[in-house]
Amino acid sequence: MAVKPLEDRILVKPIEREAKTSSGLYLPESSTEKPIQGKVVAVGPGKRLENGTVAALSVKKGDTVVYGKYAGTEVEIEGVDHLILRETEILGVVG
Question: pTM of the full predicted structure?
């Protein structure tokens, strides 16, 4: 199933944090925080402005982005968790 975001929305697949520390200790699932980085899977066409033009998005498919801990709406697509975010909820692009 393909999902095409609308307007200035972006479909992101969260990047899970490692369950193992650099010293080799495994962390229990309850102690790990929600991911705050993800890979952009799909983007909408952009937000329509009052004058009728469409403002292009500043991120593209394949970018790694940073977003707020509780940003977006969680959705499950073909058994995989994703987030749908507005462009304004993205804090930055990694890299």
Answer: 0.79
